[in-house]
## 1
Amino acid sequence: MSQSVVIVPCSGIGKTYGTVTREAAYIVTEDLRPADTRIVPLSLLVLGDEEAQAAVRDAAVVTLDGCKLACATVNVRQAGGAVAKEYAVLDFFRQHRDMKPQGIAELNAGGQKLAQALAEEVAATSDALRSEEDNHA
Amino acid sequence: MSEEYLQATVDKFIFRVKSDCLYSAAGVWVARDESTGLVRVGLTDFRQQASGDVAFVDLPAVGQMLQPGEDLASIETVKVDLAVPGPFAGKVVTVNAALAGTPELVNQDPYGEGWLAELAPDQWPVDGLLDAKAYLAVMTRQAEEEAAK
């Protein structure tokens, strides 16, 4: 059986769109696909943590970025990992205009809906990545 | 610094002001095509940077008559919902349809591909618009006030 898909969300604290990425990552790893996915914190990659770097090198990685700096995607690549799928929350919001995120410590209803929608898409992506991996095994 | 642009640095940010445009103090640039008499308008570099990444741009209907200060466009960014005031009275002749699919053009190329609309002004020249040097001074004050918040 294939290994867990690694999800790396934005680590921007105090940023609404960063909060959406983390909420989405928690929904995937705790509710939707707890057995198939896990989070690697971006902060560990930035700090050069060897275990975190090895995790993104050895697994399929999905990045969730809160802004155009795309720190999650950039740092996974700098750690030697290959990003299987990258999501930018702003692009995702453009497809879901009725889910306007606001708030930082606590997202508003729109932000929670956006995080849920993003999580469902990430979960589907995770399924596809694991299926591909199984087919190649 | 390019002669095409004036620029100011405030805090860690650099803001460009296109030399051959006129400006409203609200951060709208105005460029008249002498051959057609039509006036293209858009958001200044300072206003787009201060407003953040653009998610959606709602533009007026072609044919709509605008009064000075009336909403020319509504721009939704990651930080604010911005009502862009029209800089003069006139009729909307064209809108930038590309912004429906790629609103980020307002951020990426505010004086070029990110233009908002073309208007036929009721009269020209228009009172109250600033040249680039005057707008640079106004914009610098606005940027310094925002940086001090």
## 2
Amino acid sequence: MSLPPLEPIADLAGHPLSAADLEQVALILDGMMEDIQKLRDLELPDDVEPILAFRVEPWV
Amino acid sequence: MPLPSDWPWRSLADVARELGRGGVSPVELTRACLDRIERVNPVIQAFVSTDASRALEAAEAAQREIRAGRYRGPLHGVPIAIKDNYDTVGVPTRNGSRVFGDRMPQRDASAWVRLRDAGAILLGKTTMSEAAWGVDFPPVRNPWDVRRNPGLSSGGSGAAVVAGLCYMAMGSDTGGSIRIPAGLSGVVGLKATYGRVPRAGVVPHSWSLDHAGPLTRRVEDAAIVLDAIAGHDTRDPASAAVPVGNYLGDLARGVRGLRIGVPREHFWERIEDGIEPLVRQALSELERAGARIEEVSIPHMTGALGAILVTEMASVTAWHDRYLKQPERRARYTPEVRFLMDAGKFVFATDFLKAQRLRRVLMDEVRSAFADVDVLATPSLPLRAWEVSESHVPISGQTEHVLHACWRFTYPWNLTGLPALSVPCGFAGGLPVGLQLVGRPFDEAMILRVGHAYQEATRWHEMHPPDPTPPA
């Protein structure tokens, strides 16, 4: 998977990085994009809400 | 008089029995451990720091108490170690990083307070990967083969236990970092239910995934430790006010009539030769002991890796953001870890929220999978210990990054928060293999009971590596 230029995204995130650093970051992201894309492609039912404060409760 | 030569290999439970009846003293044991650390640690680097005078002082106090009839219980006088991300007043807590090289905690981690109150003797802190992130290790070596890695961020804890340097070491587990070193080093690793063991005072890595827990030689030892550290803690916002069990007391109930579920998906895919037969053999052993094995299904497990990736990356970067913004501190991260943290800035909120939605789906599916079974069983890892110089390994014809490969079977139980235990179940090519047992929320007693029954029927936990020598 080829990534778009990351510099504008880094700037947008308020985290500007040098070209050399961006190159390393791109390598890392490239290695993860297949799994992240699988997550994006998942069809989840409309009524599934995100768990925003993660807690485990006993099953009753 | 020196202790008998088998002392480094005794279990915590054995040692506790001897301490309780006065067959050995805390000072003798602590000295023996410190001597052994001095001899073995230069090769395996399991400890990042030790404090002999403080340990001996605590051992002398324990000895006085025990002799005066004030025996506190099975951890009293037992020498232990703690991972370098647990706050310990008076001992630096560096989180494996030069960024925190000057960090002296003002308050002890809750788990350490409970261990200390139970009478445990702290020998020192175990080596960890920087900020529990990445694979750029300090040079911790696997005692079974010093050319190899002992596991991820709690690797020092796994190496310390299997090398006989202490009788228990605490680790932390965000995607598998207790169970992975347990599996690769041939020891027991317990990650209790999320919220069961306080994380307060353990440097955060990913708030919703972090767990604290022990690495030990025997399941019985892990039960002893859990008895001491489990329970609600007001200092930890995720701590659960759920009654704790009698983990040691429940161990001997056996597995007759229990139902063990084996997930159909995910856990048998892309796995190194030699691992699956050992895990299937372990299941047969449990069947012989009276358990029933059944297949179960967790369909969304296969796609869940992306969920933990975005959750962990975003969380780690969010916590470290204030340090990443300080040029002087930023420069102290090793480049590999800094790049990983920078990459966390590129996680989109929509992906993060999708991951948290998937966690809910997974929780529901796992709950259904548990409808007719008492525990789940899987391999702990799809690979054995890799060489320290390797970043990628071939598995089933595919080359895979070791970080990606090693947590494939462990991270689902961080996403769902369920209790999980890794138990040694044999050796493939001379390297340890682990069986992973997973329980219902807060049912640590059940996985400990099954793990103990397995250890009662087998002898893998009695095997130990020869004293390590430097790699050629």
